[in-house]
Amino acid sequence: MRTQGFQSAPLTPRQHPWVATSKKLIGRNEWEKRLNDVNIRKEDTNRLVMNFLVTEGYVEAAEKFRMESGTDPDIDLATILDRMAVKKAVQSGNVEEAIEKVNDLNPEILDTNPQLSFHLQQQRLIELIRNGKIEEALEFAQEELAPRGEENQAFLEDLEKTVALLAFEDVSKCPVGDLLDVSQRLKTASEINAAILTSQSHEKDPKLPSLLKMLIWAQNQLDEKAFYPRITNLSTASLENPAV
Q: Per-residue DSSP letters for the chain?
């Protein structure tokens, strides 16, 4: 008797170990030999390290690394101190100070980036609310942020969310209470940090994290075709023997 309208799913090696697999098995010795055959210049590695130190603002480490490795940064290390001062001011809630420092560095940064300018003013409003300066917060929102909201729908929505903080005595019950979290300061600080780097013709993100993402992607692609010693712990980069 033939069953109509039913087709069984194909078996996979994971479901039934006895089903043959076309994956190739690469042992540790062969894999390590392949890795050793890849030629990576010390200069390229040093530049990656310097790029990370400069982008993340580790001035002293960058200076020491320059002396030890002979690797020159692609920007003046003195400018990192100014950038970190701006970032620290935002992280501490001193937004007005941060804006002054940015304008001292390069007034075009805020003049040509209305979104960043709005987010800094929004952070100023958040800090006023955090410090219980309700009347000053309302006045600031009306005079500084409302006009920008009239010209930009996204700004208006962000302003309405921020003002909503005033409607709750217990901010923990406010749906947008996370605006008062430290993470919001860090988000704004990261945005201004990226803008300063861009104005200095420098990448806004370090290259090393992107390379690690590429490594993970490449391993995921290779997993479909072979069993091989893979890196499971990125902090140690140790190889783990394939499980077959």
A: -PPSS--PPPP-TTT-TTS---PEE--HHHHHHHHHHS---HHHHHHHHHHHHHHHT-HHHHHHHHHHH-PPPSS-HHHHHHHHHHHHHHHTT-HHHHHHHHHHH-THHHHT-HHHHHHHHHHHHHHHHHTT-HHHHHHHIIIIIHHHHHH-HHHHHHHHHHHGGGG-SSGGGSTTGGGGSHHHHHHHHHHHHHHHHHHTT--SS-HHHHHHHHHHHHHHHHHTTEE--EEEETTTTEEE----
- Residue 244, pLDDT score: 67
CA proximity to 118, closest of 85, 93, 154, 164: 154
Strand partners, 25: 227
- For residue range 84-134, list pLDDT tens digits in order: 999 999 999 999 999 999 999 999 999 999 999 999 999 999 999 999 999
Query: How many Å separate Cα 225 from the centre of its chain?
Result: 31
Largest CA distance in the chain: 86
Q: Which value, to the nearest 10 degrees, does the dihedral of the CA atoms of residues 208, 213, 215, 220 take?
A: 170
Question: Rounded CA gap, 119 and 136, in Å?
Answer: 18
Under a CB-based contact definition with an 8 Å cutoff, are residues 83 and 239 in contact? no
Give the integer Cα–Cα distance in Å for 11 and 15.
Answer: 7
Beta bridge partner(s), residue 24: 226
- Asked whether the predicted pLDDT for residue 11 surpasses 90, the reply is no
Write down the pLDDT at residue 21: 59
